[in-house]
Amino acid sequence: MDKRIENTKSKINSPEFQSFNKVKKKRIRRQLKNLEITKKKIEKKRERANKNRENNILEEYMQSKNESQDMEKEENENENEIENNDEEDEIKDTELKNENENIKEKEKEKEKEKEIEKKNENEIKFETLIKNNNSIINKYYSQRYRLFSKYDEGIILDQESWFSVTPELIAQHIAERCSCNTLIDLFCGAGGNTIQFSFTCNAVMSVDLDPMKLLMAKHNSWVYGHSNENTNIEFINSDAMNLSNLKADVIFLSPPWGGPNYTDSSIFHLDSMIPNGFEIFKNAIKITPNVVYFLPKNTSKVDIAKLALISKENGGSEYCEIEENYINEKLKTITLYFGSLINNNKNYELYQ
Fold it and tell me: What is the block-wise mean pLDDT of the chain (352 residues), using blocks of 10 residues?
């Protein structure tokens, strides 16, 4: 008996035991438990036999026989008890598994409900925007064809976009200079630059934190020939300061300037923007040295020199090109070019 118990224990402690299936493991453990129980009962039986040796042989025989029967009965009861415990464990495992699956299903359902609610909310806002599109200040409405030549074909703008969209001629010119494989358009807004980039670049990633702006940009791109099935634009709802997972050949920066009142000051400072204009540039230059910065015409030249220094410190160009953008002989904005985008064949202003 001792040898059988030792052999069974050795088998359980062997590396080979871990490769057995669940049923075989259970059978071996059960065998060991039965052997141990049987051993204890045999030992008790021997103790009783030693005490009763003076009894006659027949009584001893009958007693031994009865004990064997009792022992067999107890073994059967032990077996049944072990099986019942195993069944209870399996039932508990199954219940726990089902409970976890139910929790996961409920969480998925909640996430879907939130997505649907968010989508419905954005669609309602977008429909409201379309209805209210004509309630715009005449000053900007009169410039609609300057912003989008296809305005009458269904262009949609919110009030902020009327004074923040890049005029189409300027957007076309910048897009021609930024021709590349992959371009990121940060703060894409209503999509004025994104649309023009899509004609000169193989792939455009249009990023904006405002989902309404992305809906407008996507809708406006359809006016210019794009569709869900046929487009090279990817619209990304994200914080413009979170670009760690994006890669591109060129990054275009056109952050909010704080509304039309930026012209009230004689000098526009980059740290007055939200997010901070210097931090925006530092974040972009880590992805590619080829950065384009679209800024007000009254931007501080000291700030521009600081941008060139940041570019140099991050392995980019040591200077930048400043391009002035005119419409009807009036200076409207400036565009800064960094990295390989600097045009060495033109007469332009350099800042170091």
Answer: 66 65 68 71 73 63 66 69 66 73 81 72 60 56 88 88 89 95 94 96 94 92 91 92 86 86 78 90 93 94 94 91 90 93 58 42
Strand-pair partners of 182: 203
Closest listed residue to residue 185, CA positions, set 161, 162, 217, 153: 217
Q: In what order do the strands lie in the sheet with 233-237?
A: 233-237, 203-208, 182-186, 250-253, 291-296, 330-337, 320-327, 349-351
Q: Cα–Cα distance between 320 and 322 in angstroms, integer?
A: 7
Which is nearest to 279 in space by CA: 333, 242, 238?
Answer: 242
* Pairing state between β 349-351 and 233-237: unpaired
Largest Cα span, the chain: 132
- DSSP calls for 317-341: -SSEEEEEEEETTEEEEEEEE-GGG
Residues 6 or more apart in contact with residue 1 via CB below 8 angstroms: 35, 38, 39, 42
φ, ψ (nearest 5 deg) of residue 179: -55, 125
- Indicate the pTM of the whole model: 0.61
Query: 263-278 burial, b if ≥16 CB within 10 A, otherwise e?
Result: eeeeebebeebeeebb
Single out the residue of 224, 225, 230, 226 nearest to residue 150, CA to CA: 224
Residue 262 carries which side chain, given as an amino acid letter? Y
| Cβ count near 247 (within 10 Å) | 10
Q: How far is CA 207 from CA 100, 239, 278, in A?
A: 37, 8, 19
Q: Contact, 255 vs 283, CB < 8 A?
A: no
Q: Decide: 67 and 45 in contact? Cβ < 8 Å.
A: yes
Under a CB-based contact definition with an 8 Å cutoff, are residues 192 and 168 in contact? yes
Cβ(318)–Cβ(312) below 8 Å: yes
β-pair partners for 219? none
